[in-house]
Amino acid sequence: MGLLFLRNNIGLYIMAIHRSLGKIKTPLSHLPTWFFIIGYPLFWLELYTRSASHGVTSAFSWVLFAGIAFVIAGSDAAKRSFKEITASTAALRHGTAVEKWLWSIGIGITFLILAIVVLASLKPIHLVQESDCMQYHYTLPRQHLILGSFVHIPWAADDLFLLPMDFALSPFWFATALPNKIPQLIIFFGLISVVVRLTSALATPRRPWAGPLAVGVLLGTHGFGIQMGTGMLDLAVAYLFLASLDSLRLGHWFLAGVEFTFFFWSKSLTPIEVMVVIGVLFIVFALARLGHWQVRNTFVFKHWQRALALFIVLSLAVAGPFVAKSIYYTATPFFPLSPGMMGTGAQIEKHPQAWQSLGKASQYWMLYTKNSYGHGRDLLSFIKHWWLLAVPEKGVNNAFDYPLGLTYLLMIGPFLFFLITDILRRRYCPLSVLAVVAWGLWWFTTQQSRFLYLPLLIIFMVTLSRLEKISRVLLLCLLVSLSLEAVSLWGAHRNDINRWGVDVLRTQDKQLLELNNRYLGHSLSCYVDWPFHDVAYAQFPVMVHKESLPHTILY
Fold it and tell me: To the nearest whole number, what is the mean pLDDT of the chain?
């Protein structure tokens, strides 16, 4: 009933939002933030009204998002945002004939890469690199919608994770016949725009080419290319953090509060990691102040107190249910961290077999995953990892999962040079220190390359904003990197270019679709025993009895 009422009054709600946007100014690059503003409350509404009991959500979320996008596109904030981005590209018209030619080629390859990414994003989830999507990002929110309950799905260890991002995007994912990944595509374009804006702001008008060059560096990075056009959420997490910085820079405290809230609670261990990073940054800043170091390359944050207050309030709604659920079932606020750490009495502990299986899953995620990547943590490994991160070692992958590519090598050298120069000249650059601290935390934890996305983007922004000029050698290297990435993306997606819908799916997913037809055709309501955990395409409640750690536990 609640959702029906909303649908029947959609015009009134869009008009109300139109009025409110006069106070909540949204640059066009921050449009993706509205996925989370709209999607999170709608998910809970659809869950408890049972309006998505077959795993298909209403189109209301997309209609509302489209209406808001229309309003934002015509707003003054969007026009200013567009002018800032187009103004930064004006620098491409300057330079010698050779440089203009190189820029033109780079722009052509950039559009080719974006075209491949768009085509890949129009396919349903099915790729090998989308395994996490099928294991839990898509599967678990859909199962909750089908069940009409937030109660722990007993066979799914990852149902105890923090999943607010997944829940917020679910009303958009499941509004189509097959689960889509269009929100990730729009968020990716938002990430590009935010990176351009932040880089240009750091560079100042003295280096107007820094923003446009950031687009080429981002798209030419193989580590990012692995997830471009997929349903994975790591690039979306990076968007949320960088967008929150940009919102604070512009004084848009409401957007900043929303963006940072969903970033902070994006993964189970992210809150702990963020607090560690903030603590180290505070200590370094205090030491810099005591030493009378000069602060440079930073942003002035406006209304950050309001954003912080909003973050605290929103966290109760965004993270509260998941933290409470984790405590209730595992006696830890951030599963998979130490089940039972808050004492005995966890709900799953009442079932010894399930508790033992859950402990194994926790150990796998906390210990095995940590030691599964990289070459170790000794000094020699640290020295070698700067090079090994960039190149493949076994086939197309390396010990860090997948290589970051040539653009990483092009940027890391100048960044380290600027960092050492700052230290020698007693200059404190907050963004540089943030990247270093985040990188250090990564080194002592997972060492999986995809968790370097955020510090890597910060390194790109800082480095590009401080380069005094763009040499032809750098442009040529960037063209090579863009070309290699275009070839890589084409190779990854060429088999699916002319296939659409069901044709791209795995055999087991097609079996689920066939079973959907029989299940819904006979109006059944029982659980279906299924041998696999990844049931993103199921429109019926599933039970998995076979233990398959770390995702599937005994119960």
Answer: 91
